Amino acid sequence: MNSQKSASSERENTAFSGWVMFPINLLLLLGDAALLHFSITHGDQWPLGIVGILAGLAGLVMLGGYFTLQPNEGRLLLLFGEYKGTVRQSGFHWTNPFYSRQLRTRISLRARTLTVEKLKVNDKRGNPIEIAAVVVWRVEDTAQAAFDVDDYASYVHTQSETALRHLASAYSYDDGEENEITLRSNVEAVSQALREELQQRLSKAGVAVDEARLTNLSYAAEIAQAMLRRQQAEAVIAARQKIVHGAVSMVAMALKELAEKDVVQLDDERKAAMVSNLLVVLCGESEVHPVVNTGTLYT
Q1: In which element (H, E) is residue 91 found?
Q2: Which residues span the domain enclosing 172?
Q3: From 43, 93, 121, 266, which residue has the greatest number of CB atoms within 10 Å?
Q4: Could you report the per-residue pLDDT of 196-233, keeping only the tens digit for each?
Q5: Between helices 221-260 and 268-283, what is the axis angle to 10°?
Q6: CA distance 14 to 68
Q7: Pair (87, 136) in one structural domain
């Protein structure tokens, strides 16, 4: 029966000040030299020579326990493969010299930026699009980052690409249904959704996602021209609708003003002709050159 491996958890540990331990270490080494010299000059003091040798060996072994940490940096303490905790306090420290000194035991806690290069994926409607993002992340749990994944930096990169692909396929590029979130029109909401999905994926590696935002969004090259023409047509239709609505309002206002002020009495046929002329003037794209009638309206 297979059982899922439980996640690791960081434990805080402390280390001795290196500035305190260094004088003690120095005294052991100097004491070793003094005892050896005394035992050699006094041949019958061989027990002191043994003590001096032991003190010297202890001093040499202690030299392996010193290490420094910069701000926003942590070191995992491993004793023969067993995790003993993490030191996060910056400065000059000393710990058990038998703690592992592998490079992977030192982990940066600083914020890092990952740029997910442009990916070609299909959106919710199957349209090929190109999308890219930037992710700001940092290690939050050093134990999980070191023990629960093989390489946490590579894990972040792979999961970021996977999350971005999944996000693109879950939303339409644009022109969604009413109140539907789209990639182009709801950048903030989409970026928040990306951040939440990344946090869920990367939490098992002890990584916190501070920010995730889209940096590039466009149709793929093979349909870009067709989609551009469609967008231009939609823009023209929308503009025409607004022009017609405004023109009709202006014609209605003109007829109302003429009737209320009794400027001229028009029958239905003349009103229709006037409406037609005004709509041509107001909705036409080119400049209109009116013909002035110097006679009567009814000839």
Answers
A1: strand 91-94
A2: 112-219
A3: 93
A4: 999 999 999 999 999 999 998 888 766 556 666 666 66
A5: 140
A6: 13
A7: no
